[in-house]
Amino acid sequence: MGLQKRGDVSEILNVKRNRMPTRRGSGFQIYRCLFLALTFFLGGGVCLEHTVAQGVVVNGYGGYTWGYNRPGDVVAARMHAYANVVRSYGYGASKYGEYLIRRERAISMNLDNRMKRLKYYFDAKRINRAYREETHYDVRERQMLSNSRMWQQVKSLPELANKNSGAAQNFLLHRLSSTVLSFQYASERGLLNDQEWVDYLQLEPEAYAHIWLKQGETRFAASTGQSLDLTWWPHQLRDPQFAGPREKFMDARNAIAQEVGSTIEYDELSQLSDAHQALADAVNVAFQEAEKTSGFKNKDRKATDTRSEWRRAFRFLDGMHVEIRKLKQSGSRALVTGQMGFDPNAEEANFIAFLQYMQRNGLEFAPASKDPQSIAAYNTMFLLMRDLYVLAAEGDSAITDPKKKYRNR
């Protein structure tokens, strides 16, 4: 039953009074009124009707004074409520304390894990640095390792050495420059005074014409000192229809070679470039006409040989263009006069003198040409240089592996 209105208070009190036993007497009524007043005062604004109604009607039961429907139940419920609030505060405080403890433990474990990660990172970095210090090769050590492997290949497996490209000869030249070709080594060992070695270290004078040297991008024959051998032209360029442009180019080139003075004039280079362009244009026209013929398009051997001959002709023209470009860049007549060449017919000319000439002029071996004589000359030169370096290989520290002791662990 819900709360009663204020106008029904007297009726409720009358009903309650009529239902009470009369054996209580008037004293009990006085105590009851005092208790109600105290309840109203302690309730802090709880209306009298609410108190009486709750004392009279609760769950449809309101018969006995000492039952559960007396007005004191409100105060007890309120005190229980305050007690629950206090207990809840205490419980919440205890749980919050436990939460703080768990949170601090989690933070502490997180910090421990971070420290472990940092320690692991720096330990791994330290181990990696130590390993790299043991196995890492700097520029000098890498070159020593490369020299060691190259020497093992040249000495024990010469069939694997790339002799026709000049790589093996250049390796031996660099190693000989600091040992056999040095003045100290020659003076102490007296190698050039040993006639047996001098006779052995001989290369036929004709072979120097088939050995190609280079200085930077400039390529020329060892004996002639010229980048182009114009004594022989490819088969397609020897065609009579190219005789006129070919002779004009030779005249312009010979004019540069025979002119006095070290510097090439602008007009001389212009005439040489124009003559080369005229020859290239004539060859292109003839090649375009040849492409239209049926013999050029066939897949038989004759057509293949024809196409190969045209490719050689165009490569020869490209070499002529490179020579002209080098002449324009340097302005020196040395490429066409042969001043860079080595004279194999000189009185004291021998193979060691040839190597010393290369060393003093900063020259290296260029790849061999397709000529069989050039391949034979490169092979003979490789054998002579290898036998010469064997004399000093044992004491040369540049062909040892500096980190071999670490790699064999």
Low-confidence stretches: 1-25, 40-67, 405-409
Number of strands: 3
Structural classification: mainly alpha
Strand content: under 5%
* Element order: H for helix, E for strand: HHHHHHHHEEHHHHHHEHH
Q: Mind describing the biggest β-sheet?
A: 3 strands, antiparallel
Molecular shape: elongated
Mean pLDDT: 75
Query: Within the largest sheet, what's the order of strands?
Result: 2-1-3
Terminal-residue CA separation: 97 Å
Task: Give the count of helical stretches.
Answer: 16
Q: Return Rg in Å.
A: 56 Å
The percent of residues in helical segments reads 55-70%
Characterization of this structure:
This protein has 409 residues and is mainly α. Among the domains are: 6-70, no CATH class; 141-278 and 324-405, no CATH class. Helix content is 64%, strand content 2%. It contains 16 helices and 3 strands. A 3-stranded antiparallel sheet has the order 2-1-3. Helix 10 (266-291) packs antiparallel against helix 12. The longest helix is centred in the first third of the chain and has 64 residues, at 72-135. It starts with 8 loop residues before the first helix and ends with a helix. The model is unreliable at 1-25, 40-67 and 405-409 (pLDDT under 50).
